[in-house]
Design brief:
Layout lengths: L7 E6 L5 H14 L4 E5 L6 H10 L7 H13 L2 H9 L3 E5 L2 H8 L7 H5 L6 E2 L2 E6 L2 H6 L11 H14 L7 E5 L4 H19 L5 E2 L3
The protein binds 3'-fluoro-3'-deoxythymidine monophosphate and magnesium ion (MG).
């Protein structure tokens, strides 16, 4: 029998929710329990496309809104062969942002609907689990100021949260909302529970296609 595949696990959430910290903690905990796991993040700023995106986010360049949306999507698609290979090798991938951020952020701009924003990502590897780290704007503010990058304002993040709320109504995706206002260990324990479940379930199922 073929060896068991890894699970595709995504962490999403608003700014300051602790996604990056929790992705690292999760991968460490999985590895320590003998489960192969690797962290990935989108945008992956290391590729040629990723460098265009990074320069845009740092406000060093301007890009037309549709164009940058498609670049974010292309940045995911260019990593798909690598992702599939790793999952087939039994490696669980813990991903810091994915297509959901892509849709939530672009559709928070005037003139963009959810439907148009989803189209380029239709058919991407479907996550076995998407955890949304939920943090109120008040709690986020307690964690410090926003950074200097594009999109890092409370007004924009508020609309992004509304778009995420829309996306979470889609029951074809395994969404789990995590209370990110707990301390780091508390959040980690919740995330670990959901992840172990997803890993066990995924090993006997084929990888799905997102929004298809
Ligand atoms: N972002 C991220 C998008 O607008 N579209 C996407 O597809 C993705 C993956 O880029 F503001 C936004 C979200 C965030 C920024 O920031 C990336 P981090 O701090 O590198 O996650
Ligand atoms: Mg950030």
């Amino acid at each position: 029998m073929a060896s068991k595949r890894g699970a595709l696990i995504v962490l999403e959430g608003v700014d300051k929710a602790g996604k990056t910290t929790q992705c690292k903690r999760l991968v460490q905990a999985l590895q320590q329990s003998g489960r192969p796991a690797e962290v990935m993040r989108f945008p992956d700023r290391t590729t040629t496309i990723g460098q265009l995106i990074s320069s845009y986010l740092e406000k060093k360049s301007d890009l037309e809104d549709h164009t940058v949306h498609l670049l974010f999507s292309a940045n995911r698609w260019e990593l798909v062969p690598t992702m599939k290979k790793k999952l087939e090798q039994g490696i669980t991938l813990v991903v810091d942002r994915y297509a959901f951020s892509g849709v939530a952020f672009t559709s928070a701009k005037p003139g963009f609907c959810l439907d148009w924003c989803m189209k380029p990502d239709v058919g991407l590897p479907k996550p076995d689990l998407v955890m949304f780290l939920k943090l109120s704007p008040a709690d986020a503010a307690l964690r410090g100021q926003f950074g200097e990058e594009r999109y890092e304002t409370s007004a924009f993040q508020k609309v992004v949260q509304q778009r995420f709320d829309e996306l979470m109504k889609d029951t074809s995706v395994n969404w789990q909302v995590i209370d990110a206002s707990q301390n780091i260990d508390g959040v980690h324990n919740n995330i670990m529970d959901h992840s172990l479940n997803a890993i066990n379930t995924a090993q006997n199922l084929p990888l799905g296609e997102l929004w298809k």
